[in-house]
Design goal:
The chain is an alpha+beta fold. The protein is 36% helix and 26% strand. 23% of the residues are buried.
Length: 183
């Protein structure tokens, strides 16, 4: 079990030395996407670690857990996240954006064997939650990383997002790439 907690001082930390099973190395790469791009690392000692950040604004970062899983985490004052499991099958529990993403991931995992149903569900989740930061993860995982991305469909999904989501560095960069593909 890994517990991330947002304290009043906006620190996100693991109050215990915890572990995630199945990691390929003793390092977890942390990739910040919002408000700015940057990298950090979490060093494990015998499979356990602690990690502390102090965001001054809503922050999105991903834990890169080897080749098998990228796990986005949303950090904000007063929110916490608990992660349980092993690489490839981590259960996320939290509030706000973290809870919404966990709910989406859990729902989509029930459709795993039916790609058409997954893609229909992803579209529906994005369209019914245009202000959710989870859409960044959904668009990236299910459309951008596809072996044959449908650029026009990605563009249509982005057009339906709220301004706050469209203004994230990832979506801005994605829109620029889509414009290049159209020209």
């Amino acid at each position: 079990m890994l517990c991330w907690q947002a304290a009043a001082a906006r620190k996100i930390h693991s109050p215990w030395k915890e572990s995630i099973k199945g990691l390929p190395s003793d390092t977890i790469l942390v990739f910040y996407q919002e408000p700015d791009y940057k990298l950090d690392t979490i060093l494990l000692s015998k499979g356990k670690f602690t990690y502390t950040i102090t965001p001054d604004t809503f922050t999105i970062f991903s834990l890169l857990l080897g080749e098998k899983q990228i796990l986005p985490i949303y950090a904000d004052k007063g929110e916490s996240v608990t992660l349980n499991g092993m690489v490839g099958k981590i259960e996320v529990k939290g509030k706000g954006e973290n809870a919404q993403l966990a709910k989406h991931i859990q729902y989509l995992s029930t459709l795993e064997n039916n790609k058409a149903a997954v893609m229909t569900a992803v579209d529906s989740l994005i369209k019914t939650n245009p202000s959710s930061y989870s859409n960044i993860y959904l668009i990236d995982k299910y459309y951008v990383q596809d072996s044959l991305p449908d650029y026009n469909h990605i563009d249509q999904l982005i057009k339906g997002l709220s301004g706050i989501i469209k203004d994230t560095p990832y979506i801005i960069e994605l829109q620029n790439k889509l414009s290049e593909k159209k020209n």
